[in-house]
Design brief:
By secondary structure, this protein is α/β, with parallel strands linked by helices. The protein has a domain of 101 residues: Four Helix Bundle (Hemerythrin (Met), subunit A). Helices cover 41% and strands 16% of the residues. Bound molecules: 5'-O-(N-(L-cysteinyl)-sulfamoyl)adenosine (5CA) and zinc ion (ZN). The site of zinc ion (ZN) has 4 residues, from loops.
Length: 419
């Protein structure tokens, strides 16, 4: 599937330090030096049934910082992102609103591309839809079946569904570190079906859902060796990541709502399919953005949309700046003042960058690159830029051409265009 256009990334005269990020699995900051020089990143993409909200944008901007920090440190980055272009929430929304599910998915994916481009988010090198990945998904399920990790669950008037047996993975639970009670409490809330009769373990997850016109009329289905049906959710990311990145890639990323079951299950499925390997070296999670006290979500409808702000004439760089003002791992509440403050800061930074001379830049470059390499600390990086702008605004003329250095830095490291 087509991604979006890449913004320019200016080269910097200095390299950034090695990058450390917080790994949910170990609970530690980990330094991930890619053995091949190429850092491999998989970030869970959207389910395209509604427009990009500030929570999605915050998550993709967070991983964009990682992409940029790795590049600043001298690595190439292979970045893969999926689009869950067939799944229950998408089909349910299409049915509820009388739209064709393919058109809905295409329209919302296109809006997402436009939003990402406006926010200067670097596109993935491979952007892969669930539908186009079905052959890989079926292949992977068949491989798991040969290894005894798959079983059929019968339906009344339809062919069997297929489930993944979590007990096939001795390390199941290692991504989230959750105990069974925690898992059971959350599983149903996040797409799981602990009470489905015929399952061997309530936590086993769906791999392949058989076509069932009596239960789900009008749902799409594809022919496969597993019968006519469609893929489950977790196997989608597992199969796409393995296909495009191999095993042991550096980072599996997404919002913290994906820690369990999604990242736990995707990792288990991959590790059972290829015994002795690790799916990802680290699992990195962005905090949840809330609105009116609750997680911003398409299903609840408490949203602030990137496209609405843009439509109201807000500079996309102010939106990006507002997101960067919060450390990616904290949960935070979206407020209109985030934008007013960001607009003001953007003006200060742009004014200072437009000055013929400004405060000395070398320590600012070092601080910004160090802050971002230290678990993507964008608020600390912004504080350094704001401080430089204040000193420049106060008439410190120590360095001719300082503004050009700072605007290159802000663009390369933070994706902020200040010109
Ligand atoms: N298609 C799946 C992932 S394979 C999915 O979760 N799609 S999504 O559209 O619901 O979310 C897209 C991304 O945005 C995911 O990484 C998710 O963790 C993140 N996300 C969703 N809501 C929020 C929020 N309120 N705050 C921060 N990130 C969020
Ligand atoms: Zn995913």
């Amino acid at each position: 599937m087509r991604a979006w256009n890449a913004p320019d990334v200016p080269g910097l005269d200095v390299s950034g330090p090695p990058v450390r990020v917080h790994d949910s699995s170990s609970g530690d900051l980990v330094e991930l030096t890619p053995p091949s020089g190429t850092a491999r990143l998989y970030v869970c993409g959207i389910t395209p049934y509604d427009a990009t909200h500030m929570g999605h944008a915050a998550t993709y901007v967070a991983f964009d910082l990682l992409n940029r920090a790795w590049r600043s440190a001298g690595h190439d980055v292979r970045y893969v992102q999926n689009v869950t272009d067939v799944d229950d929430p998408l089909l349910e929304r299409a049915t509820a609103t009388g739209q064709d599910w393919v058109e809905l998915a295409e329209r919302e994916t296109e809006l997402f591309r436009t939003d990402m481009e406006a926010l200067r988010v670097l596109p993935p090198s491979s952007y892969v839809g669930a539908v186009e990945a079905i052959p890989r998904v079926v292949e992977m399920i068949e491989g798991l079946r040969e290894l005894g990790a798959v079983y059929a669950v019968p339906n009344d008037d339809a062919p069997d569904d297929y489930y993944f047996s979590v007990t096939a993975d001795p390390t199941f639970g290692a991504v989230s570190g959750w105990d069974r009670d925690q898992m059971l409490a959350i599983f149903a809330e996040r797409g799981g079906d602990p009470d489905r009769p015929g399952k061997r373990d309530p936590l086993d997850c769906l791999l392949w859902q058989a076509e069932n016109p009596a239960l789900r009329p009008g749902d799409p289905a594809w022919d496969s060796s597993l019968g006519r049906g469609r893929p489950g959710w977790h196997i989608e990311c597992s199969a796409i990541a393995r296909d495009h990145l191999g095993s042991g890639f550096e980072v599996q990323g997404g919002g913290s709502d994906l820690v369990f079951p999604h990242h736990e299950m995707s990792a288990s499925e991959a590790q059972v399919a290829e015994p002795g390997t690790r799916f990802a070296r680290a699992y990195v999670h962005a905090g949840m953005v809330a609105l009116d006290g609750e997680k911003m979500s398409k299903s609840k409808g408490n949203l602030e949309l990137v496209s609405r702000l843009r439509g109201n004439g807000v500079d996309p760089m102010a939106i990006r700046l507002a997101l960067l003002g919060h450390h990616y791992r904290t949960d935070w509440e979206w407020k209109a003042t985030d934008i007013t403050n960001a607009v003001r800061l953007l003006g200060r930074l742009r004014d200072a960058c437009g000055s013929p001379a400004g405060a000395v830049t070398e320590p600012v470059v070092t601080e910004v690159l160090s802050a971002l390499a230290d678990d993507l600390d964008a608020p600390r990086a912004l504080a350094a830029l704001a401080n430089w702008a204040d000193r420049t605004g106060a008439g410190d003329p120590s360095e001719p051409g300082a503004g050009a250095v700072i605007s290159r830095l802000a663009d390369a490291a933070l994706g902020l265009s200040l010109t």
